[in-house]
TrEMBL record:
One of the essential components for the initiation of protein synthesis. Protects formylmethionyl-tRNA from spontaneous hydrolysis and promotes its binding to the 30S ribosomal subunits. Also involved in the hydrolysis of GTP during the formation of the 70S ribosomal complex. It is found in: Cytoplasm. This is Translation initiation factor IF-2. The chain holds residues 381 to 749 of 957 of the full protein. Belongs to the TRAFAC class translation factor GTPase superfamily. Classic translation factor GTPase family. IF-2 subfamily.
Length: 369
């Protein structure tokens, strides 16, 4: 990390080391030649000799494996879908219904593990990944940090209720993020269902249904009976083909944390959505202010896996601490590099917190005056 020994500092300033030690002693600091000084102390000593410490930027980017993907390296990846919509319009029910279409979980006898994401394998061999996010929050948070985890938004609108406040919010979030919307007009089984009214309301918000000559895909579904769910999944596959989603699977993994927690037995664990490269057991990584090493990985059904490629969510064990949802996750060359980057980030964070505190206390001081 950013430290310099007394001897090095003397050398850089072109003064005798003994002189530095002596001056520091007068300042009440008992030091030896090989003692490390942090940036603040080094700054104080340097200024005694008329120097200023220039902080040389820590090049994090150089340590994070940078790789320019060539077109030949890119491979098709599954779409990552977030379900959004007004409360009670059927988001959870729809996701449940979609999971029933999962051929793999069907074989395994249902999903036991909750990792906040579902990798759904379709009967036609296709694959769609759903994020079971608290919807808007994770989406908005990650977007605020300039990262994007969703390729397509499924907007659930209850056919007996129409567009409501949170529907409007979801539309504006998706538009701001430039993420295409596929509309699931839900609860079509209900007597009061009026899908045409929903289409009209959608068109008033710039989402003109294909059946009305626009380019917004709308599918009538019932999460309760399962009607239309297969068609919805087909439409998502179609949409994903249009988007030509690709990633290079043959490089160190990068992705984002979807959720994280402290597990009693396993320590800090987090669901990571791999977005490029392939994550492997044993990989060293940095995530937020923590370093880590992949001790084990579980897929969305709680099954141990050794590899996770682009668009695949896995629960990772081996974080140095509990990361935050939305933190970037990057595999690096070694544990040493991971620690270097993590330490640097932690220091930056402390500095920022400290200066925020100092500012507040100064503000308080001036207010009192
Ligand atoms: P969420 O708040 O958007 O996650 O909505 P939920 O999935 O919790 O559903 C809210 C309520 O609507 C629940 O009582 C569901 O049983 C019901 N519901 C959801 N989908 C349908 C549907 O397609 N048809 C009918 N009749 N009820 C539904
Ligand atoms: Mg719900």
């Amino acid at each position: 990390t950013e430290a310099i020994t007394v001897g090095d500092l003397a050398k850089r300033m072109g003064v005798k080391a003994a002189e530095v030690v002596g001056r520091m002693m007068k300042m009440g600091m008992m030091v030896t030649l090989n003692q490390s000084l942090d940036t603040d102390d080094a700054g104080i000593v340097a200024s005694e000799f008329g120097f200023e410490i220039e902080r040389v930027g820590f090049e994090e980017e150089g340590l994070l494996a940078a790789h320019e993907d060539s077109p030949e390296e890119m491979e098709t990846r599954p779409p990552v879908v977030t379900i959004m919509g007004h409360v009670d319009h059927g988001k959870t029910s729809l996701l449940d219904s979609i999971r029933h279409a999962d051929v793999v979980s069907g074989e395994a006898g249902g999903i036991t593990q909750h990792i906040g994401a579902y990798d759904v394998h379709l009967p036609n061999g296709g694959q769609v990944v759903f994020l079971d996010t608290p919807g808007h929050e994770a989406f908005t948070q990650m977007r605020a940090r300039g990262s994007q985890v969703t390729d397509v938004v499924v907007l659930v609108v209850a056919a007996d209720d129409g567009i409501m406040e949170q529907t409007k919010e979801a539309i504006s979030h998706s538009k701001a993020a430039g993420v295409p919307i596929v509309v699931a007009i839900n609860k079509i089984d209900k007597p009061g269902a009026d899908p045409e009214r929903v289409r009209r309301e959608l068109s008033e918000r710039g989402l003109v249904s294909e059946s009305w000559g626009g380019d917004t895909i709308t599918v009538e579904v019932s999460a309760k009976t399962g009607q239309g769910v297969e068609e919805l999944l087909e439409m998502l596959q179609l949409q994903s083909e249009v988007l030509e989603l690709t990633a290079n699977p043959n490089k160190p993994a990068r992705g984002h944390v979807l959720e994280a927690r402290l597990d009693k037995g396993r320590g800090p664990v987090g669901t990571v959505l791999v977005q490029e490269g392939t994550l492997k057991a044993g990989d060293s990584f940095v995530c937020g202010t923590f370093a880590g090493k992949v001790r084990s990985m579980l897929d969305d059904r709680g099954k141990p896996v050794d590899l996770a490629g682009p668009s695949i969510p896995v629960e990772v064990q081996g974080f140095g601490g509990v990361p935050e949802a939305g933190d970037e996750f990057s595999v690096v060359d070694s544990e040493k590099v991971a620690r270097q980057i993590a330490d640097h980030r932690a220091m930056k964070k402390r500095e920022a917190e400290l200066s925020a505190k100092t500012k507040t206390s100064l503000e308080g001081f001036f207010e009192k005056m």
